[in-house]
Design brief:
Length: about 150
């Protein structure tokens, strides 16, 4: 069975950055013995949010890799857990770009309870831009332009 999630409309945060919202329904397999979502799953949801944000910007990871030999490898990932998440909860993954430079990209995330808006977790990831051999390279201009516009600064 495939994972169900759906992207919602893109918004703008208080800093003018484009924010993509994706809803995810928690599966039983994502919970631990205490009935709480296992902490590492938050990072999987961050990835879902990143992929959907890129789609909102008009391209995909697949496009970047296949067409432009451009990979964005995670070099740092952080999450601050604010409240437990349980089986069958619906979570909104809010994803936005925090900073973009020629060879480094920072994404920010919020996980919120869909029905109340309660903040469940917040996080960030830093990525280096590399080629298929994992050698640093500059972000192609077409992606840099899209990312800069999405940062909103």
């Amino acid at each position: 069975m495939t994972r169900s999630h759906r992207s919602m409309s893109a918004n703008v945060n208080q800093h003018g950055a484009t924010v993509n919202e994706t809803r995810i329904r928690v599966r039983y397999a994502e919970t631990d013995q205490m009935g709480v979502v296992y902490h590492a799953n938050h990072f999987i949801w961050f990835e879902v949010g990143r992929v959907e944000l890129l789609r909102r910007l008009g391209f995909t990871y697949k496009d970047m890799e296949r067409e432009d030999d451009c990979f964005i490898a995670v070099v740092d990932a952080r999450c601050r857990y604010k409240a437990p998440v349980h089986y069958d909860d619906e979570v909104v993954v809010r994803t936005y770009l925090k900073h973009v430079r020629e060879k480094v990209i920072h994404f920010g995330y919020e996980l919120r309870r869909a029905d109340t808006g309660e903040l469940l977790a917040e996080g960030e990831t830093a990525h280096i831009v590399a080629n298929a051999k994992m050698k640093p390279r500059a972000l192609p201009e077409k992606y840099m332009n899209a990312f800069r516009a999405a940062v909103g600064k």
